[in-house]
Design a protein that fits this description.
Elements (H helix, E strand, L loop, with lengths): L2 H7 L2 E2 L32 E5 L3 H13 L3 E5 L2 H5 L9 E5 L1 E2 L2 E2 H10 L6 E5 L4 H9 L4 E4 L2 E2 H15 L1
């Protein structure tokens, strides 16, 4: 099922929204482009997404494209850390539970480096302590998977408007 129809029906984005996803379909970033350069962000419509679940990355990519955002996708904390030009992105959508690091720790690393950008946390972990730590880090939204398209797009629009 395509995210376009899923979003219009108001159903939820889940990690398994798109079975059979492969990395080539995702405009994947492992920190460098095919020519070895780190991708450069040139517009406030860019949104960075970090999630190790390929199905979730694909679902969010389609949703963002539908709403005129340009997603930059990363499948790991390490790949995200190698990215440049964070300040030019409208927002970062961070999964909290990544195999190679915590999204909350990534957020703290950005703040420590002087990078100020809105963060939307997504997670399959409904633990109140995790939510408390995420909110304390200064996120604009905390979403538990599965979440609706509206739940993601509304805080993203607000974050984007605040950075233009």
């Amino acid at each position: 099922m395509a995210l376009l129809s899923t979003a219009r029906q108001g159903s939820h984005l889940t990690p398994h929204s798109f079975k059979g996803t492969n990395r080539a379909e995702l405009s994947w970033h492992d920190g460098a482009s095919a020519d070895g350069d780190i991708p450069r962000v040139q517009s406030r419509n860019f949104v960075i997404v970090v999630d190790n679940d390929l199905g979730m990355l694909r679902a969010i990519k389609r949703l963002l494209l539908q709403h005129d955002y340009e997603p930059i996708l990363f499948s790991s904390a390490q790949a995200f850390k190698s990215h440049a030009d964070f300040e030019k992105a409208a927002c970062v959508i961070l999964d909290i539970d990544l195999p190679d690091g915590s999204g909350i720790d990534l957020r703290e690393d950005l703040k420590a480096a002087g990078v100020s950008m809105p963060v939307i946390f997504i997670t399959g972990n409904a633990n109140p302590k995790v939510r408390e730590a995420a909110v304390a880090s200064g996120c604009v939204a905390f979403l538990t998977k599965p979440f609706s398209a509206h739940e993601l797009i509304e805080p993203l629009k607000e974050a984007s408007a605040g950075r233009s």
